[in-house]
Amino acid sequence: MEYKRLGKTDEKIAAIGLGTWRMGGSMSPDHSQDLEIVEAIRYAVELGMNHIDTAEMYGAGHSEELVGRAIKVFPRDQVFIATKVWYTNLRYDDVLQACERSLKRLGVKYVDLYMIHWPNERIPVSETMKAMEKLYKDGKIRYIGVSNFSTSLVEEAQSSLSTTDIVANQVEYGLHNRHIERDLLPYCEKNGITITAYSPLGQGRLAMELRARTKRTEALQELANRYIKTPVQIALNWVIWRENVITIPKAIKKEHLEENAGASGWRLTPEDYKRLSDSWK
Ligand SMILES: NC(=O)c1ccc[n+]([C@@H]2O[C@H](COP(=O)([O-])OP(=O)(O)OC[C@H]3O[C@@H](n4cnc5c(N)ncnc54)[C@H](OP(=O)(O)O)[C@@H]3O)[C@@H](O)[C@H]2O)c1
Predict the structure, then answer these.
(1) How remote is the CA of residue 198 from the centroid of ligand 1, in Å?
(2) Number of domain units in the chain
(3) What interhelical angle do 125-137 and 92-106 show, nearest 10?
């Protein structure tokens, strides 16, 4: 696995981690796949994909419980746990309480990265950031991040912090969705903020399109043949091509986890990167 610098810190974070949306349920808990999910998370860590992304909202907390169950067999510092506070809990006291609940479900004393899941225009970012900074100073969270934040909101969040920086913004990015390229991506690149790309496989759409063999999947297939990789690996390698971008595909199937882990540690040439970018514009 390839590791990248997190924000402007000295922390090294897996270029390809593991997403857990729909692991343990969507809006309410689902226990039907608990065993497979715990196994999948452990296998991801063994493959070096030790950045595990979850949220208090996923499965109404059950995803965090499963992450906690999975990671307890590893030394704490072998896993980088990222979780998120839901947008209804962004008042100062609510953030502190939400974090305590997440720590309890995860069974840990601290989380590595704590993010605001979505902005909430009714609650000033500065109020939420004060709570994030308190958690940071108290050692409950190691780094502060945001998710689904525009450039101006990232700036506002950053200016509300006095002792530390925003290290990451988690946003949708992949061949299917390129909207951040216009503004947010260059801004984060320039300001040393990591982009964590979510839904890098278009929530399964990429695999469907590959089966349907569209014009633009031909470019992926051609590169796959040339690099002796799979089309999915080419697509994920494209996502993490820029220095400040990492990603967190969600996968339960063992073969998917292995395939995703194999998408880093090598690099498309600048010419191939550009050609692929153009063919998926
Ligand atoms: N911050 C936010 O608002 C936000 C929003 C959405 C997502 N996220 C985070 O980002 C993570 C990833 O995004 P996502 O879950 O939306 O979608 P995704 O990672 O783009 O796609 C997941 C789907 O792709 C399949 N898959 C995984 N690896 C594959 C492979 N090698 N070949 C073929 N199919 C493969 C998975 O199947 P199997 O599970 O069957 O293996 C699953 O059905 C989430 O889990 C979550 O942690 C954050």
Answers:
(1) 7
(2) 1
(3) 50
For residue 281, being part of any structural domain is answered with no
Can you give the CATH number for the domain in which 190 is found? 3.20.20.100
What was the pLDDT predicted at 258? Answer: 98
The predicted structure's pLDDT at residue 281: 87
| Domain span at 254 | 3-202+238-265
Summarised one tens digit per residue, pLDDT across range 226-260 is 999 999 999 999 999 999 999 999 999 999 999 99
Could you tell me if residue 214 is inside a domain?
no
To test the ligand 1 pocket, which listed residue (198, 237, 247, 255) has its Cβ within 8 A of the most ligand atoms? 198
> Which helix (H) or strand (E) covers residue 82, if one does?
strand 80-85
Confidence of residue 123 (pLDDT cuts 50, 70, 90): very high
Whether residue 16 has its Cβ less than 6 Å from ligand 1: no
Alpha helices in 5-140 (DSSP H): 34-46, 62-71, 92-106, 125-137
Is 254's C-beta closer than 6 angstroms to any atom of ligand 1? no
What secondary structure letter does DSSP report for 50? -
| Cβ atoms within 10 Å of 226's Cβ, excluding its own | 11
Cβ of 260 less than 6 Å from ligand 1: yes
Tell me which of 86, 256, 258 to substitute to probe ligand 1's pocket, judged by most ligand atoms within 8 Å of the beta carbon: 256
